[in-house]
Amino acid sequence: MQYHIGLEENIGAKYAIIPGDPDRVEKIASLLDNPRFVCRRREFTTWEGYINSQKVLVTSTGIGGPSASIAVEELIKCGVDTFIRIGTCGGMQLKVCGSDAVIAQAAVRMEGTSREYMPIEYPAVADFDVICALKDACDGLGINSHIGVVQSKDSFYGQHSPETMPVKDKLLSNWQAYIDSGCLASEMETAAIYTVAGIRRVRAGSILHVLWNQERKKAGLEDIVSMDTSRTIEAAVKAIEMLIEKDK
Known about the structure:
- The chain is built from eight helices and ten strands.
- Strands 5-9-8-6-10 form a five-stranded mixed barrel.
- Helix 2 (65-77) packs parallel to helix 6 and helix 3 packs across helix 8.
- The relative contact order is 0.21.
- It is of the alpha/beta class.
- It has one domain: Nucleoside phosphorylase domain (Rossmann fold).
- The protein is globular and about 50 Å long.
- It has helices spanning 25-29, 65-77, 128-141, 156-160, 168-180, 190-200, 214-218, 230-247; strands spanning 15-19, 33-41, 44-51, 54-59, 82-91, 101-110, 124-125, 145-153, 185-187, 203-212.
- The mean pLDDT is 96.
């Protein structure tokens, strides 16, 4: 029995979809065949279901790198070797609009968890096959998607209220630097997940639903606010289906 997520090592699943929000787990599992609640511990809620006779887990990770890394570590111990994070983000480039999807090819390690795994020079990158499956799924569903680098942070309010922080100059300077370098969106878990997946030799990818884009608002452009993650969830499930078929 895994201490935090509460799953047995012999659960028999190689694929997992990992949202942050526990309340999103059942919604994702409902798109699988024969969905079934498995367990709930702390921020970790797990359902299971099937795609083409292959068991797929849906486990929430909570907010941020520490709990996300725990979920991935313990799912790996249970036999999972392919992960897709389905999450939300805020756009950073003007072309990234609310309701779009961002597929994270890599992540800026602006969080603390991954630094306890590898020196900062080690890149947090996705698995190529997972990224391709996510892109194909988005294209097939007609979802406007962007592939590139995302910023993973630890402090939500450090981004949204940087001027209230004693280190405001550093926060504002870093934020502008990431925008200038082409960073697509900001979120909180991908860098930790990719770092753990990289050193444990498993596959991981991340698809993010864009809630809004504060940079578009600053520029006086329309800032669409979209809270409905249904389409991005469909893309994640479709991508898992594609990977299962490819693995056969």
